[in-house]
Amino acid sequence: MEPMYLEDGDLDFIEKKYPDLFALLKDGANKDKTEVELHSEEEWETIQDLIVDCISGSLDEHDEVNDDGIRLEGIMDIQ
Q: What's the number of domains the chain is made of?
């Protein structure tokens, strides 16, 4: 299975803003934090579901996705 690719700083951002998501990603991360090894489709689906939950929880007072949610969407766009 292909790894999840990240840009420099993405995993640190996720650790700070979305600790539940980070908990799923940290063990599979490579040393420079630019790839996360995935072991199964089920694992990938679990991660995707949590990302959707994180983005939907990143709404401002006008129910628009805030800057953190937009960045997380951008991280997902490269997958």
A: 1
Q: Which residue type occupies 62?
A: H
pLDDT tens-digit map of 1-37 = 899 999 999 999 999 999 999 999 999 999 999 999 9
Residue span of the structural domain in which 52 resides: 4-77
Residues 6 or more apart in contact with residue 59 via CB below 8 angstroms: 65, 66, 69
Could you tell me if 54 and 24 are in contact, meaning their C-beta atoms sit under 8 angstroms apart? no
- In the three-class reduction of DSSP (H, G, I as helix; E, B as strand; rest coil), residue 67 is classed as helix
Integer-rounded Cα Rg, in Å, for the chain is 12
Task: Round to whole Å and give the CA distance between 1 and 8.
Answer: 22
pLDDT (tens digit, 9 = 90+) per residue, 43-73?
Answer: 999 999 999 999 999 999 999 999 999 999 9
